[in-house]
Amino acid sequence: MPKWGTMEKQILVQVAFNFPGEQDFSYILPPELAGIAQIGQRVSVPFANRRLIGYLSAIHTPKPENDIQLKSVMEILDPEPLLDAHSLQLAKWIGEYYCCPWGMVLESFLPPGLKGKTILRPKQQKYYQLALTRIEAESRCLELRAPRQVQLIRLLLERDTPVSAEELRDQGEFSPSALQGLLEKKIIEVFEREKLPQVYYGRDAASKTRPSPTASQQKALERIREGLEQNKFVCLLLHGVTGSGKTEVYLQAVEQVLQRGKQALILVPEIALTPQLVERFRSRFGERIGLLHSQMNKRERLWEWQRLRQGIAAVGIGVRSAILAPLPYLGLIVVDEEHETSFKQDKMPRYHARDVAVMRAKMLNIPVIIGSATPSLESYYNTQNGKAGLIHMPERIQGSSLPEVIALDLRGQKGVEPPLFAPQLKDALNDRLQKGEQSLLFLNRRGHYSFALCKECGQCVKCPQCSVSLTYHSHGHVQRCHYCDYIAEPLTECPQCKGALLSYAGLGTQRLEKEVQALFPQARVMRMDRDSTRGKNAHWDFFAALKNKEVDIILGTQMIAKGLDFPGITLVGVIAADLILNFPDFRAAEHTFQLLTQVVGRAGRGESAGLAIIQTFLPDHYSIQAACRHDYQGFYQSEMHYRRDLGYPPFYRLTNLLLRSKDQDLPGRTARQLVNYLSRAKIEGLRVLGANQAPLSMLRGEYRWQVLIKAPSTAVIRQGVNKALEFWRKEQLPSRLRLDIDVDAISLL
Ligand code: ADP
Ligand code: ZN
Questions:
Q1: Which pTM was predicted?
Q2: pLDDT digits over 241-250, tens only?
Q3: How far, in Å, is the centroid of ligand 1 from the Cα of 544?
Q4: Of the four listed, 139, 284, 349, 381, which is most buried by Cβ atoms within 10 Å?
Q5: Ligand 1 proximity of 18 Cβ (cutoff 6 Å)
Q6: Is the Cβ–Cβ distance between 337 and 372 less than 8 Å?
Q7: In the 8-state DSSP scheme, what is residue 320?
Q8: H helices of 571-615, where?
């Protein structure tokens, strides 16, 4: 191995790997590879007696300070970088902002299944198309005496796109002699291209008509046109209820983009729950769409990835990770249902797809549209401080009005423990059963946590400093705040009114199903949750059963709160709004408002007016009141007060430092040392909340502790994270202890 200094002209490079760690590694670039090396290429290098694949992150780098022996790059795997300059720039930003090693970020830009040296090449296939204009071809049909040849011409005329040999064979129209004859007469031509895998784009919707835009749609489209014409970054929030015409804006904006020969990228929270959106795009843009989601197999995803990268597909539609897809001619990004928490990646790099979308649009000077009926506070705040434009679309374009919503006070109600059905809800269900109308019952269950609330005053015990519900830990019978280190004595009665306490522990959809069936033995009940919808197409069977009125009462979790329209449903019952409201998260009120608004909107989509009944111990809480009045503004104002007072986003940035290990004592001990180290550093503006066990204190065999830090600016957060990394280096912690950095953390479980 040559040592630095013995060969002056050596070129040094940096290689980034897909594993946690801070820095890239230096290697020697052999002269024969010097001519072809480019940043972003994958390389094969020796690493600790193994051969690893990494990414060239810098070329012509200075000699490292320590005088270690450098090894040489063995091979360059990609003739040219898989990522273009823009994607590399975006990857750099993600790595820096979300504090993730570049190698890990780059890996997430590539489709799964891209491991070895060459990209999987789809099979080549012969395609036939007309070589004449339609009119010429039609007149040739009249002249020709060969019926098989005429038949082929007619088929090509009808299809208007190239037809593959395989398709002809499938349809019984494959005739080598007829094809040969047409080729010789130069009526058709043949070419080879890659065979398309059978990717499901959704069924063709019936209507291809394009309505003329309403005034607010027109306003949105004008802003987008301006951005496109002037190569300008524009961020536009469409705030409108379901049915207010947001999707139509997306469609027509994409049309504008395609007319300019550019590509568009549409992000949705979950493909399975947005089949209508996909079908509408499919019906407008046909084969020009490319789909990217996790229900596709690796080969299909790779194929779509390549079609987008080569510009064959012009409209990419996908979930979270699609924001990293290669679209070299990108002209517009759309993020639908931008408030959905599934846009935040839950492993490194822990990026937020909506925020990456905005950054990507900024870097490219193109417009980005984000849409929601219940925008996140972060996004709405941006429209108030001038960072984004706002288009209000308050009304449904056609048909039904919003349902009547009642908050039903559970305080002092007697009945099953905890009350599952207050008398009014029971009566309303009975009434719908008699009329032959459908009802939906919603029970939110997320994670396993428990809290205690007072049956008399409805309050739940909160942390005095963080205003977050305390989590009850059966181990040691303590109640703790998992944001800071506050621990309360176990309670037997309400500290405020001495009322009896109630816990929802153990309540789930299965139990609810049993209770409903016992109350209404004649009703046809269907349960929809993660357990009952395991199969790939289970959703569709459920939806079909609902549509065909084979079900009287559907009950379930978040899964039934979103997505499709069920016109037969006239009653929505929320069993326990308190389960959402008392979730140990500072965003609990926001999620309550969002979920209630969403689930309440399932009622009365058809001709009959809808009714929604929300059972709660806190009927006067602003998030529940605002949901009853369909009042986003009111909710926003109240919630912003609370966020400002307690220093939460969007006023402060919040980052979670999560320590995990199979070793029981290690995370807690280290977390406390880390808190001390950070506090001693006295970084101006940085607040270190304390070390505490995560609510999911054990996950996949690992014990978990967390340290939350917050600051008014990203720069200060970054200083804090750097200090934490410095601590990690200095302490030389064992590798069985891991640190996950979650910048702008959403889920604090
Ligand atoms: P959202 O995405 O906000 O739920 P959609 O774009 O799906 O709203 O619009 C709701 C319905 O109204 C759809 O059936 C759509 O085709 C129709 N629609 C949208 N815009 C118009 C318009 N300008 N004129 C007539 N119908 C429209
Ligand atoms: Zn606290």
A1: 0.84
A2: 888 899 999 9
A3: 23
A4: 349
A5: no
A6: yes
A7: G
A8: 578-581, 588-600
First to last CA, the chain: 49
The band of 57, judged by pLDDT with boundaries at 50, 70 and 90, is: confident
pLDDT value at 465 more than 90: no
For residues 35 and 55, membership in a common domain is answered with yes
Residues around ion ligand 2, judged by CB within 5 A, are 463, 465-466, 481, 483-484, 486
Are 79 and 94 in a shared domain? Answer: yes
| Ligand 1, atom nearest to 238 Cα | 3
Evaluate: CB of 242 within 6 angstroms of ligand 1: yes
Residue matched to tokens 């038949």: 151
**Cα–Cα distance, 311 to 327 (Å, whole number):** 7
Domain harbouring 90, CATH code: 3.40.1440.60
Domain span holding position 599: 400-445+507-643
> Residue 701 is which amino acid?
G
Alpha-carbon dihedral sign for residues 197, 335, 325, 350: negative
Q: Which residue minimizes the CA distance to atom 5 of ligand 1?
A: 245
User: Is there a single domain that holds both residue 229 and residue 300?
Assistant: yes
Q: How many angstroms separate the CA atoms of 612 and 536, rounded? A: 31
- Out of 470, 486, 501, a domain closes at 501
Looking at the structure of the chain, the number of domains it has is 6
pLDDT at 3 over 60: no
Q: Which atom of ligand 1 is nearest to the CA of 249?
A: 6
The rounded distance, in Å, linking the Cα atoms of 506 and 515 is: 14
Claim to verify: residue 603 and residue 635 sit in the same structural domain:
yes
In short, whether 394's Cβ falls inside 6 Å of ligand 1 is no
**Does the CB atom of residue 610 touch ligand 1 within 6 A?**
no
In testing the pocket of ligand 1, which one of 274, 334, 397 has its CB within 8 Å of the most ligand atoms? Answer: 397
Residue pair 12/29 in contact by the 8 Å Cβ criterion? yes
Residues 264, 304, single domain; the answer is yes
Q: Decide: 398 in ligand 1 pocket, CB within 6 A.
A: yes
